[in-house]
Design brief:
Number of strands: 11
Strand order of the largest sheet: 8-1-2-11-10-9
Helix content: 10-25%
Oligomer: single chain
Number of helices: 5
Length: 202
């Protein structure tokens, strides 16, 4: 088996683990991917040109793809039992016990002003941490780990054209990778936003 085949198999294993495995194993695999998986495989059996970039986790929301720095991802979970909390805004779904810590669960669609939808088998909880802030976000699905070079992330006019207005306040730019446009989510800006900390119902 060639090195390219091994890299392709490694990516496939990461994708499968993110979508199916228990959270502890998924978190560990994310860490391994950060440290070791640095090459993106080509499609259709072509040999890909290796490139080095910071690792990002790609997830779906509405009809868009988003990418967040893998170092901020603490785990990828299936939707579990969420304990409701009284007197909070509608986009706070409640809290869960995440490996011994009580963590708030935020429906990212509703937080961003999108129409809520019922959960599906692809729905996932992303546990994210920035500084001392830990939170779980409900997203439509998680697809893969992907290295994104810094020079592939754009701002300015192209950013305005590719980042929808409902997420622009929390976007760090956009990236074009193999004809895919991904919005780079600024986790720190999201978690420490004024809106995120005004979660009590009026």
């Amino acid at each position: 088996m060639s090195s390219e085949d091994l890299k392709h198999d490694a990516l496939a294993a990461i994708q499968q683990l993110i979508s199916q495995a228990p959270s502890a194993a998924a978190a560990r695999q994310l860490q391994i991917a950060q440290e070791q998986f640095r090459v993106s495989g080509g499609a259709g059996g072509e040999t890909a040109t290796p490139f080095v970039g910071e690792q990002y986790l790609v997830f779906a929301l509405s009809d868009r793809e988003f990418a967040i720095k893998a170092e901020l991802v603490q785990g990828v979970e299936r939707l579990a039992d969420i304990t409701p909390v009284p007197n909070v805004v509608s986009w706070v779904k409640g809290v869960i016990n995440l490996r011994g810590s009580i963590v708030s669960v935020v429906d990212l669609r509703m937080f961003l002003g999108l129409e809520p939808i019922p959960s599906t088998p692809r729905s996932r909880l992303l546990s994210l941490q920035s500084n001392d802030m830990l939170i779980c976000l409900v997203v439509d699905g998680v697809s893969e780990m992907l290295p994104i070079p810094s020079n592939a992330i754009v701002n300015g006019n192209m950013r305005q054209a590719t980042v929808p207005p409902w997420v622009s306040s929390y976007a760090g730019g956009s990236a074009l990778i193999a004809n895919r446009v991904m919005v780079i989510l600024d986790v720190h800006r999201l978690l420490f936003s004024e809106k995120m900390h005004q979660y009590k119902a009026l």
